[in-house]
């Protein structure tokens, strides 16, 4: 059967944070927009990423607190007779949040007049995409959509280890997607990869009652973060009872597939029995299986190469989000989505953020924005300026103490000559919320005095942000 053609101005492949934000903004700007999504609106982030993981982190913490209270270990004088977990209810609650948010995305797209097509897109050429819709029969005419602009927002997928394929070990070996919906709390969970996912979800299942071992190839967990930030997290993981095996090499499954075989730094082989093995060794742009190769675009490693306006190497073909490489973060995908829609609509915008903050939702949390002391020193050496840094510990912050969270600190990094702020780092309970202040100060080009002389409400964790700047200026008040 010959294909049936329809036309649109902007065709977007992928309804994740990048694609759906681009669709909304483009529609606001008057473009006729069609968005094709193969699975569910909201993409990785809303369905099997940011949102469900953060919901489980919250639920696990609530259960861990209840258990402490049941064991009579609460310093607040609260006790309960016992703490019980109905995991099916926890998972249903998490799924309810996901459904609310993904339904909300659908409603927003509808409100803005975006045509949403459910189906898998295959790129035919830079202006034509063929859609395989669910339930299509072999004799049906293929549906093709032609467009003026093609926006690629196909996201990323988990990296599979060849010697530890997903589903191996009689279904033991899983990705983060399955680890967000286990039917039972595993007895022994082994996590391969001590990065974002491994530590966030490892902590969840430990707090819900599993024995958890994290196997990390590098000599420390969260190798991408600086050691001062990681130390309180490593201490807390150990206190929680999570076993951290750093500098260990994963070899595969044992003969009957019931344990993970790893080699320790001295070369000895260990077997780690596990009823679930979560492999979280990174994600990669989704570049195959949907005809991307037909476009022969320039690539940047495994990612689609884009310029500061999210243009690919082919005219009127654009790309955003995880497909375009690091950092693989939802807020970057959304920011690019908003920007590319404006560029396509004729506005003059460039993607040149002062920082893309990153948060690790461990316990305690880590947030970084802009330069670390080390990267600032390197910049200083290149451009001839000296660097100041100052740290304010939460142990001296009233709000942190009242939240039972005295661990951690806020650190500011600035130029010594003109006090221009170059970066922020924090580790502590709920510091993810400080990322807004950090991002804003960097984007606005704030100096230490701007933050130091801003009145911060008392008592809040934000006062540590102000105090870090006061300390950098030699004017610390509370330390
Ligand atoms: P995606 O969200 O991956 O969306 C791409 C969409 O395209 C998908 O829905 C897919 O089905 C669709 N698609 C792909 N190919 C086709 C095709 N051919 N036809 C039709 N549709 C197609 N980031 C954060 O910033 N904060 C966090 O806390 C965080 N937590 C995470 C936790 C986990 C467990 C995981 C896995 C990821 C997490 N991330 C987090 C990363 C975040 O999910 C991604 O950075 C973000 O989803 C990227 O958005 P995107 O739009 O580029 O791609
Ligand atoms: P990651 O890059 O954060 O961590 C992967 C870890 O696995 C690294 O520490 C790496 O050294 C280790 N590793 C690699 N190969 C290994 C091996 N063979 N054996 C043992 N360890 C090995 O990747 P991730 O945790 O899978 O997360 C993927 C991406 O998803 C992240 O990079 C991030 O962009 C995004 N994400 C973000 C958040 C957040 O923003 N809070 C949360 C989850 C995921």
Automatic annotation (TrEMBL):
It catalyses: N(6)-[(R)-dihydrolipoyl]-L-lysyl-[protein] + NAD(+) = N(6)-[(R)-lipoyl]-L-lysyl-[protein] + NADH + H(+). The keyword Electron transport does not apply. PROSITE patterns: PYRIDINE_REDOX_1. Keywords: Disulfide bond, FAD, Flavoprotein, NAD, Nucleotide-binding, Oxidoreductase, Redox-active center. Residues 356-468 form the Pyridine nucleotide-disulphide oxidoreductase dimerisation domain. Transmembrane segments: none annotated. Its EC number is 1.8.1.4. The active site is at 458 (proton acceptor). It is an enzyme of class 1 (oxidoreductase). GO terms for molecular function: dihydrolipoyl dehydrogenase (NADH) activity; flavin adenine dinucleotide binding. Belongs to the class-I pyridine nucleotide-disulfide oxidoreductase family. This is Dihydrolipoyl dehydrogenase. It comes from Inhella gelatinilytica.
């Amino acid at each position: 059967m010959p294909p049936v053609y329809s036309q649109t101005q902007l065709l977007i492949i992928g309804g994740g944070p990048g694609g759906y934000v681009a669709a909304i903004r483009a529609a606001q700007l008057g473009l006729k927009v069609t968005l094709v999504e193969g699975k569910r609106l909201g993409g990785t982030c809303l369905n099997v990423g940011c949102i469900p993981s953060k919901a489980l982190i919250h639920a696990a913490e609530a259960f861990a607190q209840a258990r402490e209270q049941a064991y009579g270990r609460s310093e607040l004088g609260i006790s309960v007779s016992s703490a019980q977990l109905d995991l099916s209810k926890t998972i249903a609650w998490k799924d309810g949040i996901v459904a609310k948010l993904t339904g909300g995305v659908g409603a927003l797209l509808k409100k803005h007049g975006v045509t949403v097509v459910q189906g898998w897109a295959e790129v035919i050429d830079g202006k034509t995409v063929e859609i395989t819709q669910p339930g299509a029969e072999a004799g049906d005419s293929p549906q093709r959509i032609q467009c003026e602009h093609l926006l690629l927002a196909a996201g990323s997928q988990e990296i599979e280890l060849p010697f530890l394929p997903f589903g191996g070990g009689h279904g033991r070996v899983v990705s983060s997607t399955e680890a967000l919906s286990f039917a039972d709390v595993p007895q022994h969970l082994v996590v391969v990869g001590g990065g974002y996912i491994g530590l966030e979800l490892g902590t969840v299942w430990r707090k819900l009652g599993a024995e958890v071992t994290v196997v990390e190839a590098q000599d420390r967990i969260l190798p991408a973060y600086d050691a001062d930030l990681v130390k309180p997290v490593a201490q807390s993981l150990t206190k929680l009872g999570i076993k951290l095996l750093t500098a260990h090499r994963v070899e595969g499954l044992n003969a009957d597939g019931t344990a993970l075989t790893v080699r320790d730094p001295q070369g000895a082989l260990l077997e780690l029995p596990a009823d679930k093995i979560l492999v979280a060794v990174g994600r990669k742009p989704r570049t195959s299986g949907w005809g991307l190769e037909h476009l022969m675009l320039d690539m940047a490693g495994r990612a689609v190469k884009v310029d500061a306006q999210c243009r690919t190497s082919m005219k009127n073909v654009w790309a955003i989000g995880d497909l375009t490489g690091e950092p693989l973060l939802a807020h970057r995908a959304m920011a690019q989505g908003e920007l590319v829609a404006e560029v396509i609509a004729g506005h003059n915008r460039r993607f040149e953020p002062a920082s893309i903050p990153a948060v690790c939702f461990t316990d305690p949390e880590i947030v970084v924005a802009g330069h670390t002391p080390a990267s600032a020193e390197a910049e200083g050496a290149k451009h001839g300026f000296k660097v100041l840094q100052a740290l304010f510990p939460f142990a001296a912050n009233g709000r942190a103490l009242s939240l039972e969270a005295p661990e951690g600190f806020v650190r500011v990094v600035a130029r010594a000559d003109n006090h221009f702020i170059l970066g922020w780092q924090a580790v502590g309970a709920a510091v993810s919320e400080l990322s807004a202040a950090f991002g804003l100060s960097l984007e606005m080009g704030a100096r230490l005095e701007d933050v130091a002389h801003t009145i911060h409400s008392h008592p809040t964790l934000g006062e540590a942000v102000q105090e870090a700047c006061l300390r950098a200026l030699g004017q610390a008040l509370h330390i």
